[in-house]
């Protein structure tokens, strides 16, 4: 069971990095330009940077990333302001307004994103050591923070609360909003929902009652967080500890991108269909690619699926060995040839 619980998340691990000299705060009516590579805010510990990040051909999003690259030339993005509305690589900028608003404008001066804030006293924008981008006024009041509007990632010390959600990315290279979201449902349970053309709950298994899935509906605080040691805890009583629990690493909790979730979901989905249909022949019809137009050997398909499902059984000990698998397939092949 533990395996299927952790599947939707990708706990990435990074070593700490050191500082580089860039801007540590934006104040007055200054701005960060998409055209200047140095226009990047960096946290005092040098762990995080915020600036314009290329997401496509002449398309940029204002993002926060780990300064230490994930691999050569690859940044780990932990937050994005305008993931669904990238801006042009020329003239776009993030700027502070005297009114206390922080805005991102495109080349045509169109505002594509803003913090929607107002302040009578001067404001400044800075990146906290924990990766939180904060807009504060000179009286110390926090007007806005990126921790309150996550994209697909939760950082340690960042709370996932009742009005927030994590939304997957389309694909590994496409950061626009995908179809999966992790959020607290009306019954106080943390759920992963597929919000594509057909809406469905993916996790926990919608066929289970909350308590059967070891979730509690009683705690209405609706708070989840990942601590810096790798322990995740949610107010619906769902918890897990990362396999490498301990202080050494920086961690994030990231919703996989759509395709990855799809892959992991397929097995669960087949199992659901199996439960719904009394007869194997009918659930097979529900899961076979309609493009085949029924042109397949039903008997063989059943056998292959049966074997495939045994191989992914929740209980490892129930899984057959590779030679048993080969045996089953060969054996059945012979059987169906006799029919
Ligand atoms: C990302 O995917 C969306 C939806 O399919 C698409 O509209 C957009 O152009 C893609 N963005 C990039 C940079 O490929
Ligand atoms: C970034 O990482 C992905 C997947 O790990 C890889 O396919 C890609 O080549 C990497 N890009 C660069 C520029 O190294
Ligand atoms: C929370 O889970 C623990 C064990 O995982 C269980 O003993 C406890 O009763 C649960 N609490 C609620 C409120 O469901
Ligand atoms: C509800 O959950 C929060 C966060 O996990 C926890 O601090 C609080 O003690 C819980 N309340 C009850 C009544 O269990
Ligand atoms: C399947 O039949 C072939 C001959 O048609 C035979 O050589 C093979 O041993 C059989 N396999 C099994 C598992 O019975």
Order of helices and strands: HEEEEEEEEEEEEEEEEEEEEEEEEHHHH
CATH class call of the largest domain: Mainly Beta
Any ligands, ions or cofactors bound here, and which?
Answer: 2-acetamido-2-deoxy-beta-D-glucopyranose
Percent helix range: 10-25%
Whole-number count of domains: 3
Outline: globular
Classify the beta-strand content into a percent band: 25-35%
Major sheet attributes? 5 strands, antiparallel
Low-confidence stretches: 1-21, 327-339
The CATH architecture of the largest domain would be: Orthogonal Prism
User: At the fourth CATH level, what is the homologous superfamily of the largest domain?
Assistant: Bulb-type lectin domain
Calculate the mean pLDDT score and round it: 79
User: What's the total number of strands?
Assistant: 24
Helix count equals: 5
Structure description:
Strands 4, 5, 6, 7 and 8 form a 5-stranded antiparallel beta sheet that branches. A 4-stranded antiparallel beta sheet has the order 2-12-13-14, with no helix packed on it. The chain is of the alpha+beta class and 339 residues long. Helices cover 19% and strands 30% of the residues. It is globular, with a radius of gyration of 24 Å. It folds into 3 domains: 2-12 and 154-258, no CATH class; 13-148, Bulb-type lectin domain (Agglutinin, subunit A, Orthogonal Prism), CATH 2.90.10.10; 277-338, no CATH class. One 2-acetamido-2-deoxy-beta-D-glucopyranose binds at residues 55-56, 59, 170, 174, 176.
């Amino acid at each position: 069971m533990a395996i299927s619980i952790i599947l939707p998340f990708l706990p990435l691990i990074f070593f700490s990095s050191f500082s580089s000299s860039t801007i540590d705060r934006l104040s007055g009516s200054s701005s960060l330009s998409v055209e200047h590579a140095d226009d990047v805010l960096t946290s005092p510990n040098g762990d995080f940077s915020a600036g314009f990040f290329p997401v496509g051909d002449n398309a940029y999003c204002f993002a926060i990333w780990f300064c230490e690259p994930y691999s050569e030339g690859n940044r780990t993005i932990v937050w994005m302001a305008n993931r669904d509305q990238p801006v042009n690589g020329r003239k776009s900028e993030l700027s502070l307004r005297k009114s206390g608003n922080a805005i991102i404008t495109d080349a045509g001066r169109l505002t594509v994103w803003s913090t929607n804030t107002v302040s009578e006293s001067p404001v400044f924008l800075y990146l906290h050591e924990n990766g939180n981008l904060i807009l504060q006024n000179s009286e110390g009041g926090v007007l806005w923070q990126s921790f309150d509007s996550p994209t697909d990632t939760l950082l340690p010390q960042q709370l996932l609360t009742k009005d927030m959600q994590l939304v997957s990315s389309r694909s590994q290279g496409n950061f626009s909003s995908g179809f999966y979201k992790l959020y607290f449902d009306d019954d106080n349970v943390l759920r992963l929902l597929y919000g594509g053309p057909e809406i469905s709950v993916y996790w926990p298994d919608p066929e289970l009652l909350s308590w059967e899935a070891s979730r509690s509906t009683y705690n209405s605080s609706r708070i989840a967080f990942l601590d810096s040691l790798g322990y995740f805890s949610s107010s619906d009583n769902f918890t897990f500890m990362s396999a490498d629990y301990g202080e050494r690493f920086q961690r994030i909790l990231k919703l996989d991108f759509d395709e990855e979730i799809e892959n992991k979901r397929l097995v669960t989905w087949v199992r659901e269909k199996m439960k719904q249909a009394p007869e194997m022949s009918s659930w097979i019809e529900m899961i076979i690619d309609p493009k085949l137009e029924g042109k397949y050997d039903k008997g063989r398909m059943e056998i292959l699926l049966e074997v495939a499902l045994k191989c992914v059984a929740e209980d490892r000990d129930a899984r057959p060995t590779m030679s048993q698998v080969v045996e089953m397939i060969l054996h059945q092949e012979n059987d169906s040839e006799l029919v």
